[in-house]
Write a structure and sequence with these properties.
heterodimer; A: mainly alpha; B: mainly alpha; three-stranded antiparallel sheet; 6 helices; 65% helix
């Protein structure tokens, strides 16, 4: 039973990370790419670590894994935010310009 | 705050009374204390405390669902969706009146919920700019935030 759960967790986690990687290659610009990375990578790492936890002999060791999950989930959205912020600054030369709601941002060359 | 202290006190007493103290016993004591406080909430004045915990539970449930939907959404977009159908763009969202902590949690949730990532928070903490994969209808995106995420967030922070 635990074997099966571990298998599922690892498989799903790896599939999500693969999705994130394909997204980075396939999506058109930096901001779209950060969508894929922020979401799929967070859940992917979460599932991989859960799978590792299930395989531990002493479940109390899992507290470290809880910490690892906590820091990953804490930092991935921040890095995605920073990448977005910088690429937006690069696109609009005036940082104090009023926020635009137009639909087409200029794309950044990869 | 007083109710939280009382809950911790009950958990500590439970821990001291147990045969073999461990974190799990403390958690159980906390749960027992919570049930006690919920049962006698009008007597000990813990209505607000109970309401915020319930709000947090509902928020976590809502957020988990949105997070999983977001992942399916990303997988679908990446693998199957024609890129010409994407309409990426920036949307500004008014966050006047929210505290900094609330804006922080909101920006996290925006990044992890379907179709949106936080890009910028203005220095005066009044507007939050996010990037959406489908920004054809900014009004609808804002209305969705106003109706779903914001009330769920405010239910436990206030």
């Amino acid at each position: 039973m635990i074997e099966l759960l571990t298998f599922l967790c690892l498989l799903l986690g790896a599939a999500l990370m693969l999705t994130a990687a394909i997204g980075v290659v396939r999506l058109p610009d930096v901001l779209c790419r950060s969508h894929a990375v922020a979401k799929a990578l967070t859940l992917g790492i979460f599932l991989m670590l859960m799978g590792l936890w299930l395989q531990l002999e002493d479940p109390r060791q899992g507290l470290k894994i809880v910490l690892a999950i906590f820091f990953q989930v804490l930092t991935i959205p921040v890095s995605s935010h920073l990448i977005g912020l910088i690429s937006r600054r690069e696109m609009s030369p005036l940082p104090s310009a009023p926020p635009s709601t137009e639909n087409k941002p200029r794309t950044i060359r990869p | 705050m007083k109710a939280f202290g009382l809950n911790l006190l009950i958990a500590t007493i439970w821990l001291l009374l147990s045969q073999a103290p461990s974190p799990a016993v403390f958690a159980l004591g906390f749960l027992v204390g919570f049930i006690f406080l919920a049962a006698f909430r009008s007597v000990v004045g813990a209505e607000n405390y109970i309401r915020r915990w319930a709000g947090l539970a509902r928020f976590l449930w809502f957020f988990t669902r949105e997070f999983i939907i977001a992942n399916l959404n990303v997988a679908w977009t990446v693998l199957f969706r024609p890129l010409a159908a994407l309409r990426p763009g920036f949307v500004a969202y008014d966050v006047t009146g929210l505290t900094r902590t609330e804006i922080l949690i909101l920006s996290y949730c925006l990044t992890l919920t379907p179709g949106t990532t936080t890009v910028e928070i203005s220095p005066d903490f009044r507007t939050l700019i996010f990037h959406a994969l489908d920004a054809q209808d900014p009004e609808q995106l804002r209305a969705q935030l106003d109706q779903k995420l914001k009330p769920a967030l405010l239910a436990f922070t206030r």
